[in-house]
Amino acid sequence: MRKGRLGVRAGVTDWVIAVGVAATLVVTGLSAQHSATALDPLGYALLAAGGLALAVRRRAPVPVLVVAGLCAVGYQAAGFDVPAVAYLFAVYAAVRAGHRTVTVAASVTMLAALPLAALASGPHEVGEAFAQARGALELAWLIAAGAAGEALRQAERRADEAERTREETARRRADEERLRIARELHDSLTHQISVIKVQAEVAVHVARRRGEEVSQALLAIQEAGREAARELRATLEALRDDDTTPPRGLDDVPELVERARAMGLDATLTIEGRQHDVPAAVDRTVYRIVQESLTNIARHANAATASVRIDCRPDALAIRVDDDGKATPERAPAPGVGLLGMRERVTALGGRLRAEPRGEGGFTVQAELPVEQTS
């Protein structure tokens, strides 16, 4: 948005400069001493056209350079001894854009063409023609315009290189920090999760060998351990290399619901609308919202049923997760880290999140995520 505003301001500035130069040239032509001829209307038109062409000098510097040069030669040939101010602006713009060779060639051509145009405008001696051409396009001003354009081009190039260096440094530091976090997670969590997973699997195996009924709680611990190990492994791989592990998203939500059912929760999933490609960040956030909501229901809600509803709209994804747990407006649970994390994810994507008890009982989580392809 900021670039857009700058572009609008630059366009307005270009037009103001172009109109100002055109007006100056036309006024100078009107006030200049010359005999009236049938070419006067053409001369005034060329004076105005040479100035107005500067309005697009940023987008098309070389064509503007050519047009301004031809207009200067044209109104000199029509008898208007007016300085080639528009051509100097065009030289500055072309050199600033990096077209130095073309600008030098065009300027040499101009220096040769202006005396010829002055000779064609009337009965002048060769010396007078060269003097008129030198007055129309002073070599010093021509060099100054080119030097100013080159100086600004070099300054902009150095600024771009400095910005690129800062971005590379920031990216390298972010990579180093990501790897450090990956090492910390591996050292602090992998061992403990592995122990939980192994112990749960051993307990289930021993119970089955003895012919005992395995409790749902133990099966849930076993499945949660496996899932935690998978999630941690995927997280570590993502931290070490952002492109090696495909993230979980909307397509993996049914697996979450099935897992909730295996834990004894009567969970349902409804997806409405036509699923379409969404930004990767939105896709991941949908999965995390549903995952965190179902986890909270299983841990804290004391609920028997839960419903997950996802509405795929052309401009947004709407997620709603409801349960019939014990939460009421009078007994609203304190927001935990998971809920705060959900809110941060949604806010970062420009969406909205509402998580609160319902009046009839139970808890609801509603999120709306924009899906414009701008991320």
Describe this structure in words.
Strands 1-2-3-5-4 form a five-stranded mixed beta sheet, with helices on one face. It has 375 residues and is of the alpha+beta class. It is 65% helix and 10% strand. α3 packs antiparallel against α4 and α4 (85-96) packs antiparallel against α5 (100-120). It is built from eleven helices and five strands. It is elongated and about 120 Å long. The protein starts with a helix and ends in a 5-residue tail after the last strand. The longest helix is centred in the middle third of the chain and has 71 residues, at 139-209. The mean pLDDT is 81.
- The number of helical runs is 11
Strand order of the largest sheet: 1-2-3-5-4
The strand count comes to 5
Order of helices and strands: HHHHHHHHHEHEEHEE
Which bin fits the share of residues in helices? 55-70%
The major β-sheet equals: 5 strands, mixed
Poorly predicted spans: none
| Rg, Cα atoms, Å | 36 Å
